[in-house]
């Protein structure tokens, strides 16, 4: 009977989350709030699959609904539209769910929330199953950008921008990669356990794991795993973290007993990896604006056994004259549009606008200018983002260097794996792309103070 309390209707849960997302909530926060109630793992997996799948493929799903139903999406009730979206996603993208089951469950939801529309939902979904092979998308040759926007479900402004920057074929591959479900990557916490030892333990426990693409302390889980309750996680043996994020820290080139500033540190993944490389010896100061985010860093340090981090509530954009020239290394993981991590956070597709990039750029320039003051002569500042947008990346660096002649790009090769060397630009910058490198889209610039 105990398990009965944990059984939910995953489609209904997905519906409730999607309705909240439409009002401005974040899908991961809403799902996590639901999952804290203690839900059957299978139900949890299906609910998450439906929520992220609908968000990721929304334009294509809506295109299909409007084509088959001859009804404008804007005229549909929110409940009915999202019930249809959940149904269509199952029919088109989920092989393991029979189409008739997707229809039946969707009709049941419609009966519960909008009884008068149940027959409409039934008719639309059955028509979609019948006419699936007849659906015509915009022509790839005549309307290339519209085709990419509809078929891969990306906002038109994003597609247009990337086609201008990268060309049609690269953009097509990029969109495909950003729509793929990434494998879970974790960092082995070598402060507590050896890499091979953890791999062995995980395999013995039945996890399917593989080695990192670039770094030996990265491990990939082949299947989605609910690891938060595992003893090895609680003991602090590993931490979920994309390899792109690990490369950012590697670029710092920290050593034992360095003085390091992590200027925008929460939630603390990079901060604790810095401590790991320093073998927990030295001094790390970690800043964030919000107390609750500093608490996340403190809790993470505690779980991972990191003792050299001092957290401080601080605005990294405001100069602290007491710290000028104090640090050997400074990491500025700048606030950005996040366009490089869409495969993990599909909400970004719909929450960002083209004009956000320009406003972010001015903030990034201010932060870099301010935080560069904290670097010792001969010291290093690493500027990083999780976006693929040149205006937020290379352009920020070139602008900074043109105004600050006492800084220059420093060679990244000694700090990054050899297989990435050919992608390094101007000696000191690297941009990763999911379609090329198999990891999130990160930008890294290593800059040295030369006076």
Question: How would you sum up this structure, described in words?
Answer:
The chain has helices at residues 10-22, 27-35, 41-56, 58-69, 78-93, 99-113, 118-131, 144-152, 156-166, 168-179, 195-204, 231-234, 243-252, 269-277, 291-304, 348-351, 354-372, 394-403, 434-437, and strands at residues 184-188, 209-211, 218-221, 238-240, 259-262, 283-288, 309-313, 327-333, 375-385, 407-409, 424-425, 429-431, 443-449. The chain is an alpha/beta fold and 451 residues long. The chain has four domains: 3-134, NusB-like (N-utilizing Substance Protein B Homolog, Chain A, Orthogonal Bundle); 144-179, no CATH class; 184-240, Sun protein, domain 3 (Alpha-Beta Plaits, 2-Layer Sandwich); 243-449, Rossmann fold. Strands 5, 6, 7, 8, 9, 10, 11, 12 and 13 form a nine-stranded mixed beta sheet that branches. It has a four-stranded antiparallel beta sheet with strand order 2-3-1-4, covered by helices on one side. The radius of gyration is 24 Å and the shape is globular.
Distance between the termini: 71 Å
Share in β-strands:
5-15%
Structural class: alpha/beta
Count of DSSP E strands? Answer: 13
Task: List the topology elements.
Elements: H1 10-22, H2 27-35, H3 41-56, H4 58-69, H5 78-93, H6 99-113, H7 118-131, H8 144-152, H9 156-166, H10 168-179, E1 184-188, H11 195-204, E2 209-211, E3 218-221, H12 231-234, E4 238-240, H13 243-252, E5 259-262, H14 269-277, E6 283-288, H15 291-304, E7 309-313, E8 327-333, H16 348-351, H17 354-372, E9 375-385, H18 394-403, E10 407-409, E11 424-425, E12 429-431, H19 434-437, E13 443-449
Parallel strand pairs: 5-6, 5-8, 6-7, 8-9
Antiparallel strand pairs: 1-3, 1-4, 2-3, 9-13, 10-13, 11-12, 12-13
Helix pairs in contact: 1-2, 1-3, 1-5, 3-5, 4-5, 4-7, 5-6, 5-7, 6-7, 8-9, 8-10, 9-10, 13-14, 17-18
């Amino acid at each position: 009977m105990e398990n009965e309390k944990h059984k939910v209707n995953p489609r209904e849960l997905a519906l409730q989350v999607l309705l909240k997302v439409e009002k401005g909530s974040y899908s991961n926060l809403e799902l996590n709030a639901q999952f804290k109630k203690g839900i059957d793992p299978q139900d949890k997996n299906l609910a998450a699959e439906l929520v992220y799948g609908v968000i990721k493929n929304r334009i294509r799903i809506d295109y299909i609904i409007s084509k088959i139903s001859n009804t404008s999406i804007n005229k549909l009730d929110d409940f009915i539209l999202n019930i249809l979206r959940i149904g269509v996603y199952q029919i088109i993208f989920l092989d393991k769910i029979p189409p008739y089951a997707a229809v039946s469950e969707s009709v049941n939801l419609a009966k519960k929330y909008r009884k008068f529309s149940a027959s409409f939902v039934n008719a639309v979904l059955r028509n979609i199953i019948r006419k699936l092979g007849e659906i015509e998308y915009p022509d790839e040759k005549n309307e290339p950008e519209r085709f990419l926007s509809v078929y891969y479900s990306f906002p038109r402004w994003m597609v247009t921008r990337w086609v201008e920057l990268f060309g049609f074929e690269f953009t097509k591959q990029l969109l495909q990669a950003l729509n793929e479900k990434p494998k879970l990557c974790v960092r082995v916490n070598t402060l507590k356990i050896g890499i091979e030892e953890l791999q062995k333990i995980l395999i013995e426990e039945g996890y399917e794991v593989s080695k990192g693409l670039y770094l030996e302390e990265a491990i990939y889980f082949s299947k989605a795993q609910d690891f938060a309750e595992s003893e090895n996680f609680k003991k602090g043996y590993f931490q979920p973290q994309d390899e792109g994020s690990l490369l950012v820290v590697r670029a710092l080139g920290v050593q034992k007993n360095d003085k390091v500033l992590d200027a925008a540190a929460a939630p603390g993944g990079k901060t604790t990896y810095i401590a790991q490389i320093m073998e927990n010896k030295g001094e790390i100061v970690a800043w964030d604006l919000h107390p609750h985010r500093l608490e996340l860093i403190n809790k993470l340090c505690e779980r991972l056994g990191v003792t050299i981090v001092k957290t401080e509530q601080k605005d990294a954009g405001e100069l602290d004259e007491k710290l000028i020239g104090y640090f050997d290394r400074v990491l500025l993981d700048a606030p950005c549009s996040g366009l490089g991590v869409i495969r993990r956070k599909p909400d970004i597709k719909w929450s960002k606008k083209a004009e956000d990039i320009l406003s972010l750029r001015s903030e990034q320039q201010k932060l870099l200018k301010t935080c560069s003051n904290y670097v010792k002569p001969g010291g290093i500042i690493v500027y990083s983002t999780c976006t693929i947008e040149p205006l937020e990346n290379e352009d920020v660096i070139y602008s900074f260097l043109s105004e600050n002649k006492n800084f220059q790009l420093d060679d990244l090769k000694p700090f990054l794996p050899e297989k990435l060397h050919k992608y390094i630009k101007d000696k000191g910058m690297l941009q990763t792309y999911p379609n090329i490198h198999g990891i999130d889209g990160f930008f890294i610039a290593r800059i040295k103070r030369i006076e």
